[in-house]
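Ticket #4471: structure export looks truncated?
Reporter: QA, pipeline team
Priority: medium

Steps to reproduce: submit the single chain below to the structure queue and open the exported record.
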Amino acid sequence: MQAKVRWLENALFVGESSSGHALVMDGPPEHGGRNLGPRPMEMLVLGMGACAAFDVVHILQKARQSVTDCVVQVDAERADEVPAVFTKIHLHFLVEGEGLKDAAVKRAVNLSAEKYCSASIMLGKTAEVTHSFEVTQSK
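Actual output as written to the record:
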């Protein structure tokens, strides 16, 4: 995997992935940013949330569970001193489906956390990563 990040001006950067996608990242106004995109550290937790959500949905679909929605709320804390690494990250999954079983969702969340989500497992090397979930039946 490769990526390229190009500085445009002030605290504004464009990242380009090897799959051909681009996105804007910007720093906070107090550091010259104009709030034109997420902060780089926000990108890390967004990526982690997407990685984990992908795993959970994929595992549930393979288990023939009818998933109609999946939202991951990520709550992250950072150290006060530099480097301001993540110290705690909590992922809360809100999973909705028809006839969705709590045990299946629990299994999917655990498999993502312990085996499949590379981003979560990597960030877990420096931060305490925890998971929880809620299951809602579709109407």
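Status: closed, not a bug. The export was complete when the record was re-opened. Leaving a note from the reviewer for reference: The beta strands are 3-9, 12-17, 22-26, 66-78, 86-98, 128-137.
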